[in-house]
Specification:
Belongs to the class-III pyridoxal-phosphate-dependent aminotransferase family. ArgD subfamily. InterPro entries: Ac/SucOrn_transaminase_bac, AcOrn/SuccOrn_fam, Aminotrans_3, Aminotrans_3_PPA_site, Class-III_PLP-dep_AT, PyrdxlP-dep_Trfase, PyrdxlP-dep_Trfase_major, PyrdxlP-dep_Trfase_small. Keywords: Amino-acid biosynthesis, Aminotransferase, Arginine biosynthesis, Cytoplasm, Pyridoxal phosphate, Transferase. Pathway: Amino-acid biosynthesis; L-arginine biosynthesis; N(2)-acetyl-L-ornithine from L-glutamate: step 4/4. It catalyses: N(2)-acetyl-L-ornithine + 2-oxoglutarate = N-acetyl-L-glutamate 5-semialdehyde + L-glutamate. Helix 12 (about 300-325) packs parallel to helix 14 and helix 13 (about 350-360) crosses helix 14 (about 380-400). The two termini are about 40 Å apart. This protein has 2 domains: about 5-55 and about 300-400, Aspartate Aminotransferase, domain 1 (Alpha-Beta Complex); about 55-295, Aspartate Aminotransferase, domain 2 (3-Layer(aba) Sandwich), CATH 3.40.640.10. By secondary structure, the chain is of the alpha/beta class. The chain has a 7-stranded mixed beta sheet with strand order 4-12-11-10-7-5-6, sandwiched between helices. The chain contains 14 helices and 17 strands. The chain is globular, with a radius of gyration of 21 Å.
Length: about 400
């Protein structure tokens, strides 16, 4: 059977509009399509392939575990899951870990836990969840409603209730909504899909204080910022703020699907047997790969390297902007970077992404006017320089068009 891009349109549900080329091989920060054309990867599978493609440590972990045990269900526990949970507990604020298969599932678990905790401790009336406009927390009906982008949640019928949205980095907006009926505040320390927008330290500190005042749990969605992306193992470590619940996925498995919810003993005890579960969550195959990913990333060499490589990106983008003046702002933390387009190119981020692909470079968008970069945390400096050269070629053509 011949596999071509046109087959997608024949057999796949049309909720995606993938690029015209089909990658078939990846190594490090480069991929090759069916025609043998090479691309430099600044997209990282949307901040997932934290160690690039086919990293030998991850490949080795996968092959080793594949010969041992793949799946058990949660009627039984397994060694890789326990080893991964121990590493996460030892290296974060958390005491307990729950494993899922994705960021959306991890956030679903966090929200259900927050509601159950509040109900058990304070009563049925404490059920309000507050999140932030332009936030993104997944695609389940609960998480997409908590996410602050109505375009993703409208059109599916009645939404889950008792969910409100404040303005990101605006503490007065949160003050106007929060009360003793609030059971949780969910926030990304840096909004990813919403524009690669970091929270200010003052704002996060004030959010923490408001949660404490109203006995509300603070949930950090670190699906995109976690596992080294910001230059720390988790983004909360960049701030003097500790959440009550943290969710992680994407880079946690380095490309193999896995997610996790981390929390404290006092909160975790409210998910007693039968209250929540996952058939595949914590399976030995995923946990073995994730353990290798976390142990590889959580080293001074890799984490310090993130900051050095981020500076290369920023310096390179600044030089490009001196020539072409297409960016109004370049922001982010570590290797999650957003380049906001000027008014002249507003709404054309996808055009920039397509133009980059034509030059052999993969980038992302974050909304209609922001080009997003989320490369491997260990991308070679030479690949950064080569990729930025290709990006400049794409921009030159966009400017002339």
């Amino acid at each position: 059977m011949q596999i071509t891009r046109s087959l997608f349109d024949e057999v796949m549900v049309p909720n995606y509009a993938p690029a015209k080329f089909i990658p078939v091989k990846g190594e490090g920060s480069r991929i090759w399509d069916q025609e043998g054309r090479e691309y430099i990867d600044f997209a990282g599978g949307i901040a997932v392939t934290c160690l690039g493609h086919c990293h030998p440590v991850l490949v080795g972990a996968l092959k080793d575990q594949a010969d041992k045990l793949w799946h058990l269900s949660n009627v039984l526990t397994n060694e890789p899951a326990l080893a991964l949970a121990k590493v996460l507990v030892d290296n974060t604020f958390a005491d307990k870990v729950y494993f899922a298969n994705s960021g959306g599932e991890s956030n679903e678990a966090a929200l259900k836990l927050a509601r159950r905790y509040a109900k058990n401790k304070y009563g049925e009336q404490k059920d309000q969840i507050i999140a932030f406009k332009q936030g993104f927390h997944g695609r389940t009906f609960f998480t997409v409603t908590v996410g602050g982008q109505p375009a993703y949640s409208d059109g599916f019928g009645p939404k889950p209730g008792a969910i409100e949205h404040a303005e990101f980095n605006n503490i007065d907006s949160l003050k106007a909504l929060i009360s003793d009926k609030t059971c949780a505040v969910m926030i990304e320390p840096m909004q990813g899909e919403g524009g690669v927008l970091p929270a200010t330290p003052e704002f996060l500190q004030a959010v923490r204080e408001l949660c404490d005042t109203h006995n509300a749990l603070l949930i950090f969605d670190e699906v995109q910022t976690g596992v080294g992306r910001t230059g720390k193992l988790y983004g909360y470590m960049q701030y003097n703020v500790v959440p009550d619940i943290l969710t992680t996925a994407k880079a946690l498995g380095g490309g193999f699907p896995i997610g996790a919810m981390l929390t404290t003993d006092d909160i975790a005890k409210h998910l007693v047997p039968g209250t929540h579960g996952s058939t595949y969550g914590g399976n030995p195959l995923a946990c073995a790969v994730a353990l290798a990913a976390v142990n590889t990333v959580n080293t001074p060499e890799v984490l310090d390297g993130v900051m050095a490589k981020a500076q290369l990106f920023r310096d390179g983008l600044a030089k490009i902007n001196e020539k072409y003046n297409v960016f109004a702002d370049v922001r982010g933390q570590g290797l999650l970077i957003g380049a906001e387009l000027t008014a002249q190119y507003s709404g054309k981020a996808r055009d920039f992404m397509v133009a980059a692909a034509d030059e052999g470079l993969m980038v992302l968008v974050a909304g209609a006017s922001i080009v997003r970069f989320a490369p491997s945390l260990v991308i070679p400096d030479a690949d950064i320089e080569a990729g930025l050269a290709r990006f400049e070629q794409a921009i030159a053509k966009m400017v002339k068009a």
